Amino acid sequence: MSRLDRRQFTLMASAGLASAATGLMSRAAQAADPVKTITVLNWQGYGTDEAFGLKAFAAATGIEVKHDYYNAEPEMLTKLRTNPGAYDVVLVNSARDAQAQADGLIDAVDLSKVPNAAGLADAFKTNPNITIDGKTYGVPWVWGMNALAVRKDKAAGIDSYKVFQDPAFAGRGALFDDAVTEIAVAALMTGQNINNPSDMKLIGETLKSFKKDIKLIWSSEDEWNKAFAGGAFDVSIFWSGAITRAVHLHNQPVEFVIPKEGAVGWLDNLCVPATSTKKEAGLAFINYMIDPKFYVQWATSGAPASANSAAMDMLPADDLNKQIHKPEYLPKLQFMGALPEDRRQAFNDLWEEVKAGYAH
Question: Which residues pair with 266 in a beta bridge?
Fold first, then answer.
């Protein structure tokens, strides 16, 4: 296994990153082949490949960070399986964490060796989707919510998903074309577990009751913004992080609402692949990715909410991302979890049935 060399540790120390290498110092002295590059597997354009971050990390450590990308989570798992040793850090959504762990694709992480993990909210560090047999598989990085986006001047005061059943909003609603999300919304409305609802018949009946209100089923952020700007709908299921971009980049008159039934939470984690040969260097990069200094600069270009409370605390008080992702919302979230393939297929089949009903 390659190790960090003394130069890399010294440089990290000078840049305030020395703590990232806690626990590595003694082994650094044994280094024969200093780490020069690591490879990250992630969605393209999703934080880890921010040019300013790569430059700062390279300047501090002497380590160049390369990237490979995936376009779907199954592709991510396939790349890990078929390219052993190719990756040193991988982005894994908490809904896929258990599957990656069960397949032996990722290692447990000792958070005590990740100094910036001290700022992670307990709700993330102990999230049951990443805590397996008492071990933590991944470092919580960013999070968000799927809930309601409402037009300020035409849909104020809404506090429930039942708005999609309200005759006053006939033809004024929009849903996300994602079976997992929409099944979860109906599960929240009916008091069920979003990952394993006990009454799928009731889920279906609930979603079908939205028919008169649904004007659009959108599938991309760009489609949502164009349709909302054109007045196609006034209330929609939407992503919390996308709200900040809708306001800042598109001047949309929209606000984000956490309904009284709760919201669908998601959590993205940076994990260490089990076959990595540069695990200490990968962990040092993960520590930098949750560093408040990195996050505050990334936030200026529309980053999701950081799982590091210390990073969120450094944002200005009037920052929209900070206002939307309030810590007090965390107890109201059900986080997306692992889905067996047969259940995922059942979700997809029901959603297709619901959509077909909307079309007639």
Answer: 144
Q: How far apart are CA 238 and CA 145, in angstroms?
A: 8
Q: Which residues contact 100 (CB under 8 A, 6 or more apart)?
A: 77, 80, 92, 106, 137, 271
CB 150 within 8 A of CB 254: yes
Give pLDDT tens digits for 175-223.
999 999 999 999 999 999 999 999 999 999 999 999 999 999 998 989 9
Bridge partner residues of 34 (DSSP) = 3
Average pLDDT over residues 117-124: 92
Contacts of 169 (CB under 8 A, 6+ apart): 155, 163, 213, 234, 235
pLDDT for residue 31: 53
* 85 alpha-carbon distance from chain centroid: 25
Instruction: Report whether 132 contacts 103 (CB < 8 A).
Output: no
Q: Which structure tokens are listed for 211?
A: 């028919």
- What is the DSSP pairing of strand 235-239 with strand 173-176? parallel
Per-residue pLDDT band at 32 (split at 50, 70, 90): low
Q: CB atoms < 10 A from the CB of 240, how many?
A: 24
| Cα–Cα distance for residue pair 271/138, rounded to 1 Å | 4
> Rounded to an integer, what is the distance from CA 289 to the centroid of its chain?
14
Centre a 10 Å sphere on the Cβ of residue 219 and count the other Cβ atoms it contains. 11
Whose CA is closest to 58, among 46, 69, 66, 67? 66
Query: Residue 235's beta-bridge partner residues?
Result: 150, 173
